[in-house]
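We emphasize that the prediction below concerns an isolated chain of 363 residues; any contacts that depend on oligomerization or on bound cofactors are therefore not represented. The input was used exactly as deposited, without trimming of termini.
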Amino acid sequence: MSCVGLDTTSERVVTRAASRVGTTTTPSTTTPAGAGDTTTTTGPATDSGSGNAVTIAFGGDVHFAPPLDSTLARSPTTMLDGVKPALASADLSIVNLETSIGSGGDRQPKAFNFQAPPTAFDALTAAGVDVIGMANNHSLDYGQPGLAQTLAAASARKAPVIGVGADDDDAFAPLIARVKGQRIAFIAATQVLDGNLTAAWTATATHPGVASAKRVDRLTRAVTEARRAADTVVVFLHWGTELEHCPNPAQLDLAPRLVEAGADVIVGGHAHRLQGGGYLGRAYVAYGLGNFMFKVGGGEGAETGVLTVEVTGRRVDGARWQPARIGGDFRPVLLPAAAAGPALARWEGYRSCAKLAGAPTGG
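Result of the prediction step, given as a token string:
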């Protein structure tokens, strides 16, 4: 199985599959903004790797649909400044990019089609994003020609993209980040694909596309293989029912299978609403991070934030939710202390129907 890595002389390295080139970044010393957080500590570790704690920041769904495309054209490196302190201060960070990258291609027969120029990658990496998940229901909005452009742009810009590829080995290949002596594996997959496009979009042994979480055996095999190569395994998923705060049966069924296969942290999106986060045994699961930088009409769809999970090998030391809100320009901004408290309480309230615990359980 091929995998990628990221490495620097300052202890942060990410590598990607042999067919794509990895990126090199330097850790930021920026202090996170926003006051809301919650942290839980686990018991003794059974496998702590190097023994050093690593922080991983997660953001939700991102696109560059109009008018965000105009902002991207004017100032690509400042688009996520409102949440950059939380992203860049973590050892590693990841978001979900919901768009094809390039121009032209075969517009797919679906309700919404998103496309952005390669500078979209610059907007994310400038904000401190180290890993870009693209296993979702928009990465092939312009068909196979659009995917070819996406992969070419990622290679040219050394963008750390996961979840799409020239075949299923490439799409399911983990990105391995080496931080503080720890090996953190990231795998991305999607449960959400339009029925009429599933076959055309799914990566197989002979077909480019997305890593499909509908292929449960293939996904669990990828997790098991990553488990042997890494100290911490993170699975980044596109799943859930749109506009619902509670996970659906498919999410509730898949999460424990991934934990059994070796996942330590499972985080997802797609519902355009926040969903609950907490412990499933010793693993940490956050079912949905909602929109992040997205054209929304306000209300619950504008609720967002940055989830930062601290791990020491297989031990999840704690999780912190920093609430944010998407403004009128469709860009997220971390909330000040006065507003963060109520927003944090709402997020914690979603844990109940997610059937997750506030502290780790099991051995």
